Amino acid sequence: MLAQASLVAGEVTTQAYQVSKGARAHDVAADPAADGPVWYTAQRQGALGKLDPKTGDWEHIPLGEGSAPHGVVVGPDGAPWVTDSGLNAIVRVDPRTHEVKTWPLPEERGYTNLNTLTFDGRGKVWFTGQNGIYGRVDPDSGEVTVREAPKGRGPYGIATTPSGEVYYASLAGSHIAHIDQDTGEATVIEPPTAGQGARRVWSDSQGRIWVSEWNSGQLSRFTPSADNPAAGEWKAWKLPGDDPKAYSVYVDETDKVWVTDFGANAVLRFDPESGRFESFPSDRENANVRQMLGRKGEAWAPESGTDRLIVFRYGSGE
């Protein structure tokens, strides 16, 4: 169902799309093509959702018995890839035929509570599991490797820089980590704020790592040193409001930073140059916007509490 677009904060317009009731749309990923579909994880219904933004029509692709999908990204092959905590597997869905392919984690690992995934610069899939693991899938060979995370429980958001470096955040561990793609080893990087609850990470065009801090209500930035991706400098900004809860972070192609704030029931856009936050509150209570993603000129937000997808359209500056 399409909703009327409305002008917000000058150059940003919003549009809401209603999807399946009870889907609890968790994460979202837009096809890079301007007219391409938008994928979302229908966590409560064990399916991957596919929205056509032109018409507002959506459909669900069942992922298998017991499925509970969490994260989704569009891979370099143009297909949506999913972390499915119910199946304890990485899942690929063919964007045309909707064929579902799974890479189960080794049974001896047990339940890992899979969270999020990303592609490195070599075409390999890295993923996190909150029960204290991270790992890799080689799409060519089918090999699945699972590793124990340093400091145990907590691996959550994960992202790749333009140069192909991979970083993840540990919510329970209150740190971020850099993964060496040659050895597979993860090096812990401690933020300056203790117990901050680093939840999600994203990279800007310069390879700086932006972190949403759930416990502290801060947006922080780690700037890696030129010769060591696991060392560098930190800076942090407190989100506006009395009790901010920064859930997810996404950096658009203009290097503006989008943060979802459960405390304010809003999506925020941060300008690193001015240090200014803009707030876009939801028109419904308990929107609970989880991981945002986007494409040129668009930032997409899944309202897991309202079963809607919201798009923020903005000028790219070109």
UniProtKB/TrEMBL annotation:
Tell me which InterPro entries the record gives. Vgb, Vgb_bact, WD40/YVTN_repeat-like_dom_sf
User: Would the keyword Phosphoprotein turn up in this protein's UniProt record?
Assistant: no
The organism's superkingdom is given as: Bacteria
- A Gene Ontology biological process term: response to antibiotic
Q: Which GO terms describe its cellular component?
A: outer membrane-bounded periplasmic space
Q: Which UniProt keywords apply?
A: Antibiotic resistance, Lyase, Magnesium, Metal-binding
Q: Which cofactor does it need?
A: Mg(2+)
Function, as annotated, reads:
Inactivates the type B streptogramin antibiotics by linearizing the lactone ring at the ester linkage, generating a free phenylglycine carboxylate and converting the threonyl moiety into 2-amino-butenoic acid.
Q: Which family does it belong to?
A: Belongs to the Vgb family.
Q: Which PANTHER family match?
A: VIRGINIAMYCIN B LYASE
Specify the protein name. Answer: Virginiamycin B lyase
Q: Which organism is it from?
A: Marilutibacter alkalisoli
